Amino acid sequence: MILSFANIWWIRVKRLASVIRLKPFDDSTPENRSKERYRRIALTSFAAIAARGVGVLTALISVPLTLHYLGSERYGMWMTISSVIAMLGFADLGMGNGLVNVVSESDGKNDIEAAKKYISSAFFLLLAISTCLLIVFVTIYWFVPWARVYNVTSPLAIKEAGPATAVLLCSFFINMPLGVVQRTQMGYQEGFRTNIWTAVGSILGLIGVLVAIYFKAGLMWLVLAMAGGPVLAVLCNWYDFFFRLRRWLHPRWNAFDWKAGRKVAGTGIFFLILQIAALLGNASDNMVIAQVLGASAVAGYAVTQKLFTVTQVAQYFIVPLWPAFGEAMARNDRAWARRTLNRALVFSFALGALTALPLVFLGKQIIAIWVGPDVIPSTFLLLGFAFWVFLAGYGGVMSTFLNSGALLSKQTWFYVLASVTAVILKVVLVANWNIAGVIWATVLGYGIFYVMPAARLAYRHLK
Length: 463
Known about the structure:
Layout: H1 2-19, H2 30-70, H3 72-87, H4 95-108, H5 112-141, H6 146-150, H7 155-178, H8 180-187, H9 191-214, H10 219-245, H11 258-282, H12 285-293, H13 298-308, H14 315-318, H15 321-330, H16 334-371, H17 379-402, H18 407-433, H19 436-462
Helix pairs in contact: 2-3, 2-9, 3-7, 4-5, 4-8, 4-11, 4-15, 5-7, 5-11, 7-10, 8-9, 9-10, 11-18, 12-18, 13-16, 13-17, 15-17, 16-17, 17-19, 18-19
């Protein structure tokens, strides 16, 4: 029995290894199209892991250097500015994700002209949005007491607050329309190119920081070095992709089309709603705990949450499925989509079990060694996070399929319902179950209002 099970998995591993190569498959047959999708999924996944590894490594090097160089107040101000920038991810109104959908659909229909219109329209619309945001920022910049915003007191920090904010925000505004190249690559299932250039950006940012520290530059130049590296990498990616590999897709004004732009924007609105709902349902944990139990109770929950983030390895393999499903469904290749959806669910659950279950039994000991005995979690909290791992894996897989085509709008409504329910349950359960009530509220909210509706919608569509 065990030998037979091992043989089955060995065959699957060999089958997967056979598609991992740099040379594309000839996609003239359904079998080769299937292999080509898996090849691109594998390349994108491994490139994402490598890019993440480079990002972690550069952070391990840069964080202690910049912290000691700037001091706690100026470094804290930098991190606060960065967190505000992260919240501006909604500024593109979901159009980046909308572009992924329409490009993968065009790829499935072999419609290059449609892809040109979608890419050009998205670029110029995002350029207009970023320009408007830049004008608004420049207008209000001189009237904002930046030192008071970040609550800094030292003369140097007060002097640097405004310029550092300006540099980071300008980098964000420049990167917004340039990000079209990354979304286009993802739509064509070539996310591995994006991940490679992301790793290059991290390295360039680290080099810039080292140079800035060597010349004893101020915070503004340090921020420019760190933020400029990724922007420079995106520019190089833009040139490589749009001027060398796929020159016919380069954004042009004569390819701008209002109808195509409305489709990208219309799809993007649903992604915007999903992003807000996800933020509401998943990022409200610490706020609820702080309001109900006090800020000191947040530490125990946050440490356990960070421990379980190591279980999210499956996401690197799941995310590349999104454009692959879109392209397959555009070709009406439902058999491949069903087979891949089932395999992805099995893979996600298996990897979740391998990573989450050991933490249920060893989590207390790991946290005691890691941060000390003051924030040891309860077994009930560890079990809640273990269930959350399986739920997150399931949701990750199902969303990659439901994000495509007409299913997106249908998924949006029950996902919003699940998010709102989770928040309400958090407030109720945290008072009765302590901090464990927060994670169990997430499990119950999404378990009741997302799991079954998502499965029913996906498999009914695949029939």
